[in-house]
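Hi D.,

Good news: the full-assembly prediction came through. Inputs first.
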Amino acid sequence: MNNLKDFNLGQFGNLLSGHTEIRLQRNSHVNIALVKGDVMGNSRSTNHGISTRVQEGGVFGFAAKSNPTDHEVKAVIKSATENAKFLSKRSGSKEILIPAPSVGSFSYGTEKARLSQQEYLDFARNIDNYVAKKYTGLLTRTISISMLDMEKKLMTSSGSECYSLTPRALLAVSLTSETPDGPVNYYDFIGGRGNFEDLFTTPDKLYSLVDEVYENLMKKCNAVKAETGIKDVVLDADLAGILAHEAIGHTVEADLVLGGSVAGDNLEKQVASELITLTDYAHTYDGHPCPVPIHIDDEGTKAEDTVIIKNGILKSFMHNVESANHFDTKPTGNARAYNYNDEPLIRMRNTAILPGNSKLEEMISSIEDGYYLMKSKNGQADSTSEFMFGINLGFEIKNGKIGNAIKETTIAGIAFDVLKSVSMVSDDMSWTAAGMCGKKQPIPVGMGGPALKCKINIGG
Amino acid sequence: MKGLEIAKYGVSALIKFGADKAQVKYIQTTDHEMTLREDKIDLYRSLTDDSVVYKAIVDSKEGALKDACINPEAMNIAVQSVMELARAGSADKCYDIAPKSEPKTFESGVMVPNPKRMHELLLNFGNYISEKYPSCIVEESYLKLTVEEEYLANSNGVENAIKNGFYTFMVMFTSKEGEKTSSFNYSAVTFDELEKELYQNANIDELVRQSTEQVELSILEKSFTGDVIVTPECLSSFTSVLCGHLGDHALINGTSFFKDSLGAVELSDKFTLNAIPRNEEISPRIFTDGDGIEIQNSSIINKGTIKHFLLSLYGSNKTKLPMGANRGEILEVEAGQQSLDQIIADTKEGILLCRFSGGYPAPNGDFSGVAKNSYYIKDGVVKYPINETMVSGNVKQMFKNIAQISSDRINMGYCIYPWIKFNGINVSKK
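Then the structure:
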């Protein structure tokens, strides 16, 4: 399995029955972490193997094996077929119709020579030394580098074939300072789609990120508590992206719709201000590759953009072939699996609110008493469309001006209510590519947006 | 090669290629899983995964690598990569491997899947929910048998062979009446045998019943600072924070709020948190830590006193604090004196917090988040399910201010928790 791209899946074609997908996949991770200068993470890991999913009578059998021999691949196909038969005998129904096949090869890997672990470590050490020398009063500091290359080769009995290599590399700076109220932390990431060698050149180019993290940490050390309750806020672009993902994106995944999500009752209804258009992009935005470009999904479906909200009207859900059959619509390539032995689930790809016409400065100056919320931590969605996310960096707005930083807090709201309250949308667009979405499996996702002015519930 | 041979081969290869100390863990995991969505079992998965985890220490520098290959040629290539990683590291005399001990063999649980019985139980579950709670939609539930064989060897002569088999049942559900929808809720349990109907495990039946009444939600009349009764299913949102502050990351960093507290009374004397990895009533049983050191049951926090940290070998070496009997695997909170009904009856104003959805707490333990699937309590009576309600406070303060702990507990297989009433939590309406 060393050369996944050239591995001949076709040799197993005669073993396939019904509708079958065979997926060969390798996830390669590099993890480096320096904590107060000590190397506490220095590892690589690879998950690789093959899986087969067989459909019979509208139900699926699935089997997987790590690093299989040819003999074991045949056993995997046989096991998946037997599992499908086991279920269809007991609960089978109508076959799920499969869309037209798609074929392609898509690599976002670097063409440069790959660096060694020593070189990655030295890069991190350089940044760590910069922090240690310049900012001597910190309680602790962590510099980490994480990389994930997802490489897949798919073949389906309906004729789809796809090779993809989608790498991601992130560098994080996390600084902590002691205060009378206990330790205060701030962190930020840089990086996204691509290999480390394409994203980063020399460590000194990241010193300004470090300086910014430190400045924001110092502001947080003197932070005030946010008032609880509904407030006027400007959500910066990063937060608009996570809003698109958590607040709306999850509620319109068709499996959650079938599971009772409130979005199911709101198709073709006004769910947001008419300033809001929200799209799940497949691979390209404005002529550039998205953070997580998907051209053909893990069911062999050609990936196309899905317009979810257009001028405030809910237009579409996101589907796999099974839910698309149920809703009598066509899937647009939202089925993805994280590991080789995971089944494809309905996942977002690159979910973004589109830019508007306002300037960020105008939006801030229009608020008498509210908050400017800039960076988030984790987030979660709900069937009711109530979302929450943690705020890692935010500021008071008083009389149209930025004031004190606020302590970490959580914001929440009913997505449709919050989006209906949007009164200004900035004219810029920013993508974050550090996100991992959790469902039954994690998966890399892209999130994007402009800044939004809206009303939101702050937790204190 | 198979089993312990693979681990021992890896260790001797690492030493041959220059490691001063070496550890190799070979894990084979097989899963058999069926998934129920709404009322149909539509996915049956059979998985086999091999992982070999190498750790090498050379000149006090450590590197680690995980791979799936178990043949000697591929393992030799992996070994050379591990050595390259290690040599690139920084010297730290705190890196180490477990000291020599007698070879250990452990076996626990069920090893052979029973697909017909799995299918029968899952189908029964779907039918039970749709008949008894017709407004409840099972978004997804799965029943899975995991059999894990772990073989660890190191260059000090440690040789462990552990085999564990256990079932996991997970269910995620929402209730819906017309356009009214509850929050989703979920529960997961682990067990060794397929004896009971799935809805009879832990508190699943009651959680689903609650979901059906949570389609009618009300906003609190006012914000208040009062009592929060945290349910067993929700408690790990907060005990995990306590354990984080007893573990490697926070203690090495110096951010732990327990860093100077070994032996000190830091929390309510009503609170006792034990680790019970070897108990019969939990599943799976855990016998060793990540370094292959055998772990035992212990009291981590006894009547509010911090009895031991949850440090690994490296963490202990780094902080010069003692390792405890375990790393905090499989927890229980000791039962209190009053029944849940009595605790509710004693509550003047508060909420029953059934699920917490919040940002990761700040390093000092401050937290805030949404109270999901939760209820308002007034004058000793559960009044109504609540909507758009947030709770905030400080985790350490919270566990200092325990009012009551229930005598009733729920065993979820991987933890055994009561209901706990905390004083002085901020509850905010929209």
